[in-house]
């Protein structure tokens, strides 16, 4: 990223997710490394990893059952925030002066509200394709 002089906003969705996961993994590994420096502290670290795998182990070391359980819990937490986000997005959509982006944004809100697990396809270019919405400009100006 530094060699190509790219900012995080220019990365594709999957690469951005890898970058976020790498940072999360570092935040898990650094404290464990510091705790395990004293002699015999490795036993304490192993014991903590056994009882708190989600917080201390990287995704790579989770069992398939743990992966399903932990990712389902994360998804439930994210979904709890959806109604508030969708209400704010619908308000922002109504404030857009152009009809096409307004229609697309309201259609997206309706699709997400109607579908229990919407497949929005962010990896394949997003729902809007090449239409770029500058919602903040309309909201804050």
Number of helices: 7
Oligomeric grouping of the chains: single chain
Which percent range describes the beta-strand content?
under 5%
- Our measurement of the CA-to-CA distance between the termini, rounded to an integer number of angstroms, reads 33 Å
Ranges where pLDDT stays below 50 over 5 or more residues in a row are: 118-141
Number of domains: 2
Shape: elongated
- Find the count of extended strands (DSSP E, 2+ residues): 0
Mean pLDDT: 77
SS content category: mainly alpha
Mind describing the biggest β-sheet? Answer: none
Characterise the protein shown here.
- InterPro entries: LETM1-like_RBD, LETM1/MDM38-like.
- One of its GO terms (biological process) is intracellular monoatomic cation homeostasis.
- Keywords: Membrane, Mitochondrion, Mitochondrion inner membrane, Transmembrane, Transmembrane helix.
- The protein is mostly helical.
- It folds into two domains: 8-62, no CATH class; 81-140, no CATH class.
- The protein has seven helices and no strands.
- Helix 5 packs antiparallel against helix 6.
- The longest helix has 23 residues, at 13-35.
- It is elongated, with a radius of gyration of 21 Å.
- The two termini are 33 Å apart.
- 2% of the residues are buried.
- The model is unreliable at 118-141 (pLDDT under 50).
